[in-house]
Amino acid sequence: MSDGVAGGSPLTEGRWAGWVRWSDPTPDTFLQAIGTGYMRCEAPGRAQVALETRFSHRNRLDTLHGGFLAAFADHAYFGGLWIMGHTAQVKGVTIDLSMQYLGSGRVGPDLIAQVELLRETGRLMFMRMLLTQEGESIAASTATVRKVSVAQ
Questions:
Q1: Alpha carbons 70 and 66: distance in angstroms, whole number
Q2: DSSP 126
Q3: pLDDT tens digits along 22-74
Q4: How far apart are CA 128 and CA 79, in angstroms?
Q5: What residue ranges define each of the domains in the chain, with the CATH number in brackets?
Q6: What's the pTM value of the predicted model, to 2 decimals?
């Protein structure tokens, strides 16, 4: 794909049927530490981004590491934009990201980010999300993304 993202059509089989797989096609980037995401558009301006948690995402307390959750949130904002149809903005830049930790995440259950595009201006996209596991809130986040210029 021209946006540098490996993705495509929704999967038709398995537990992620109906979701689109998204991963970084460039080897040895930080995204490999996060893992492969799965996205689906819920409605205009709303998407879900999912991730299978693994042992490398934990801290010494055997809960999901707060830094990992922030990194996944950043990843999920761009995955959400991509599946919502803002494919050029995958190359945008996060200029502000805040996290509010609401509970302890666990290794094992899938992590689900409910991503919402609140407002878009000529240069910025204002977003928020809720991170959950098995329906329980783990963290909330807001972010501002600086858009890339799109050649006309």
A1: 6
A2: E
A3: 877 777 888 888 888 899 999 999 999 999 999 999 999 999 999 999 999 99
A4: 13
A5: 20-146 (3.10.129.10)
A6: 0.90
